[in-house]
Amino acid sequence: MPGNPLLATRPLADYVASILGQAAIPTIVAATTRSERWQDQGFEVRKVVTTYRFDNGAIIRRTVEQDDFPDAQACAECWIGYEVLVPGSAGAGITPARKSFDNACREAFWLAYHCA
Predict the structure, then answer these.
(1) DSSP characters over the chain
(2) Which tens digit of pLDDT belongs to each residue from 35-63?
(3) Domain coordinates in residue numbering, the chain
(4) Predicted TM-score (pTM) of this structure
């Protein structure tokens, strides 16, 4: 017997695609951002935390932390994290509830794999 579609889980990748502007659904209805900067061993570190509210009631926080250390690699090290704060309407789940990456290339690869 099929489960209730209103209670079905939805992949976090769907929300990440929307956050990164690669999909229109689920729809972001509001976003709030706060940022911080500080010095660590002579380098400036920036942290940007954005909380996204979606049309289905889901709330997801994206945190990006990056320093200005010179890096010759094509994909510089940074920390990107997603956390589901509220799963949305009708008790629908979002999986995984947390995901983190150590650079934007890994984030892009994960998204391409899960949204293909």
Answers:
(1) -PPPGGG--EEHHHHHHHHTTS--SSPEEEEEEEEEEEEETTEEEEEEEEEEEETTS-EEEEEEEEE-----SSS-EEEEEEEEEE--GGG--EESSEEEEEEHHHHHHHHHHH--
(2) 999 988 888 899 999 999 999 999 999 99
(3) 5-114
(4) 0.85
